[in-house]
Recover the amino acids of this structure.
């Protein structure tokens, strides 16, 4: 059975682990809905659909022409992400509750992990970045492939086109994507465009799993990707356009979730939050956080990228 972190947290008896998963889901629009499959291994191998088999009508007494589909053998390696949290035990003697202080420190670690996961999910690149991580969406979408939609041809990018955004949505799988991932500036630009009769755009709102107001475009939730754990913008206007060399553009990603069939998370086991107690006889209470996980894509059309978007007013 596959669960998102938020769903899995409801099944946890350990309050420390349950709270950690809840914080991850709050701080990451990706992890709030992304389903994870437990594989109990260091890597996951699967067959990914490449082309469908031939299908024909036939006349009476006529044979079919054989035509098999093609599959790609894919192997995804898991990556280890985590850290330790130390709290000096003397703080309890300074008027605090050591358990409360450790809970606060662990909550901060959860926030940091969520933001790092967001960065890896979008920008991770084993070949050119952190070889200990995993490839994110940008590395997985070819610059010449069918899942890349160009927003324009100008050096440095062009203003977001609603027509191109609709094309991005149509590029994903057999149905609408489950989420659109973009930076906070583009989310605001869409909000403003929806109020203009000259531009328009179907912007609606609903509540997410935590009761927070969630913006949607054509009924597709918008996930705002902000900063990483170091405070740097993950999806800043620092990309080049389709034909240029000036790095003043950003991208929007469309993603369809689904275990086996679309994009999904894989993990060797559930995320672990382990109380190590007074560490090595020293004076600190230590908590270990560790997650052996990655992502897999059952169908290459479950993700798509619209690139070459500048910080300018949206156009129709």
């Amino acid at each position: 059975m596959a669960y998102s972190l938020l769903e899995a947290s409801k099944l946890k008896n350990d309050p420390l682990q349950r709270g950690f998963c809840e914080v991850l889901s709050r701080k990451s629009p990706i992890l709030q809905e992304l389903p994870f499959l437990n594989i109990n291994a260091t890597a996951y191998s699967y067959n990914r659909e490449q082309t469908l088999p031939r299908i024909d009508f036939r006349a009476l007494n006529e044979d079919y022409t054989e035509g098999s589909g093609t599959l790609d053998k894919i192997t995804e390696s898991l990556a280890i992400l985590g850290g330790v949290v130390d709290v000096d035990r003397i703080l309890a003697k300074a008027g605090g509750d050591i358990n409360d202080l450790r809970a606060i420190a662990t909550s901060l670690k959860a926030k940091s992990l969520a933001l790092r996961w967001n960065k890896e999910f979008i920008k991770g690149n084993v070949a050119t970045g952190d070889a200990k991580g995993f490839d994110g969406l940008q590395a997985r979408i070819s610059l010449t492939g069918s899942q890349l939609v160009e927003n324009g041809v100008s050096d440095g990018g062009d203003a977001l086109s609603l027509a191109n955004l609709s094309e991005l949505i149509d590029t994903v799988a057999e149905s609408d994507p489950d989420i659109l991932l973009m930076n906070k500036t583009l989310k605001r630009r869409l909000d403003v465009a929806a109020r203009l009769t000259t531009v328009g755009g179907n912007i609606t709102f609903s509540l997410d799993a935590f009761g927070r107001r969630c913006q949607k475009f054509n009924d597709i939730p918008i996930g705002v990707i902000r900063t990483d754990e170091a405070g740097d913008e993950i999806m800043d206007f620092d990309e080049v356009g389709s034909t240029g060399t000036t790095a003043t553009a950003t991208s929007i990603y469309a993603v369809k979730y689904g275990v086996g069939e679309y994009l999904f998370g894989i993990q060797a086991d559930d995320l672990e939050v382990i109380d190590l107690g007074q560490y090595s006889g020293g004076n600190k209470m230590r908590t270990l956080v560790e997650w052996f996980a990655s992502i897999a894509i059952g169908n290459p059309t479950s993700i798509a990228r619209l690139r070459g978007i500048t910080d300018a007013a949206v156009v129709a």
Q: What stands out?
A: The mean pLDDT is 91.
